[in-house]
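Notebook entry, structure prediction.
Reason for the run: the old model in the group folder had no record of what sequence produced it. Starting over properly, with the input documented here first.
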Amino acid sequence: MAFPAGDSAVTFEVGHGISPEIQQRVQAFTVALEREPIYGIDEVFPTYRSLFIIYNPLILSFSDLERILRDLEFNLDAMPSIPKRIVEIPTVYGGDGGPDLEFVAENAGLSTDEVVKLHAGTDYLVYMMGFSPGFTYLGGLHKAIATPRLTTPRVSVPTGSVGIAGSQTGVYPSESPGGWQLIGRTPVPLFNSVQIPPTIVEPGEYLRFVSITNEECAEIVKRIRNGTFQITECFS
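New structure, fully documented this time:
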């Protein structure tokens, strides 16, 4: 269903609720529009269950765009499946970078080691990007370690902080205010404005957190600085 958003944008819903299946359809739509660009469409932004599309109304009317999207949706199931890309995010859990790990463990009735094992034992689906450039909204957090946000948000959260808020987990790509429970920190930059693409992961792909030591983190930082670090990724 298409909803106008002003005179040059439209929200096109492909499902109701939040689920991996709906996100796959959102991603299939996005890929289809990238592979065969439609004259008049300027930008496409995938979200949890819809696409936000910016278009030129002098070239493409709302009714024509809606018809094109409905035709595309009709043929969506015939499109080839997209390989699952998984990007590993090395993370130091606890310590100065994860000041809330003990609270998350206490809230869950678990040890800190058990929290780390659960958090690092999942491949997290990237539903969408938002809040700040490179911030990933991830699905798949184990319900046992779901934790409420902080009562009072922090004025500043360091770049690379890994946090939990409710049933979500994510990484702060840059320093910013935030109210998530911080359980660790990664040295790997998630956003670089001079790279193409600027993010290391896209909606529809997956993040996998990998627990590392402080010594391993220092080595990664050294490799990032001298330009020899490479992201670990796999496909399935």
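Summary: The chain has a mean pLDDT of 93.
The old model has been moved to the deprecated folder.
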